[in-house]
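G.,

No rush on this.
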Amino acid sequence: MKFKRILLKLSGEALMGNQQFGIDPEQLSSYASQIKDVVNSGVQVGIVIGGGNIYRGLQGAGKGMDRVQGDYMGMLATAINSLALQGELEKMGLSVKLLSSLTLKPMAEPMSRKIAVDYLNEGKVVIIAGGTGNPFFTTDSASALRGVEIQADVFLKGTRVDGVYTADPEKDPEATKFSELSFAEAYEKGLKIMDLTAFTLCQENNLPIYVFDMNTPGNLLKVVQGEHIGTIVH
């Protein structure tokens, strides 16, 4: 097995499937099924999921809403998605613990590095909701922070595209894919892999970032088993 403990970042938008907003039950089930296969292979799994399918603080701020208020709404959106994923994974027979940086009793326990690591060592899936618990930080930053805290082997960024490209492959047919990059190269080329806070946190703590297509069933298991199908930044 290539990675023994992973931090998986899922985008909220990806949960929409073909819908305009909200959660597509089929997409949720597909993600949960992939996660189950990885857990059953013996990998410890921590998960952070975004909230963009429900609410984005930055978009609200652009329309005149208070940024701090909007960001807290976004954090609550991550909690809704986390609860949905927890329910789906438990339906498949997995033991799942939901932790949160916001106080969400009785739904979730407060986030604590020690509790998260203890649960991971017990073979439980750990989902961490609520972002960093602070406004002005993205869920990418929260994922990087949690990945460093739980001492994950890798930060897996599950997206709709199969890696990092020279340009947006959905817009530019000439875009070419990188197989591997150093943090310095990614920064120099101005590649928008994630926001700078998250990127720097990974770089300073030697947490490799692996970008891959999560929407193709089976890809998550291929990644943790060492098959090179995305882009690794290290």
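When you get to it, here's the other one too:
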Amino acid sequence: MDFSSLLQLVTARDLIDIALVAVVFYNLLLLIRGTRAVQVLLGLVFFAGLYWASGLARLATLEKILSGLLIVLPFAIIVLFQHEIRRGLATFGRNPLLTNFGAHQLTETTIHEVVLAASALATRKTGALIVLQRLEGLRNYVENGIRIDSRVSYDLLINIFTPGAPLHDGAVIIYDNRIAAASCFLPVKLDAEISTEFGTRHRAALGISSESDALAMVVSEETGSISLAVAGVLIRDLDSKTLRNHLYRYLITELGTTEGTG
């Protein structure tokens, strides 16, 4: 069968099928690129190749051992890639066709109050951690804190983070222009590559921004500097104007564009 005959057998449905499979695999590779999942995946490919080679070489003992390992492979993949799977499902949930079900833009007034409070806390070198929810829900983190459900205001944020106040430890979570909870505990990123100069607040900000699409703003009590964690990356040494611009971009401009496409 020549190439032209083969092309005649390929239908439009086949081309769509191939294109969708390519898109799925491409996005999976993008999802794990730059993470430890790449090394784990290479290890799994190595064992699969070793199993295939043991079958060809008729190495019965090795083949028997590897076949036993392959039985538990699906469970191992779930455990090893749980973070990537969770992040992939969350990425799918941010599809423009689905975002209208969970998108809540923050208003300029809310951003103004947050920036004002951050600037005042930075001047006083008062440590603070404020998480701003975007599309992905943070209900499990809200529930482990103290529920407040109050309008976002400069005075309230300052009082919450005042040293010695009952709620100054932990994070404040802001959702739908309201302070949902305070004194919330967040996942701490324990990556060895993170600089030792970062304390628990910065690591918690990196952790929550890695596991969700939320923004996490940190005020350092040592230096008084303001940082913003976005997608597991820390933007450091922000002044009030730059912080406002970043918050406006991520919480109003980008969400507005996403909702508009839905």
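Residues 3-100 form one domain. The CA atoms of residues 1 and 32 lie 39 Å apart.

Enjoy the weekend,
O.
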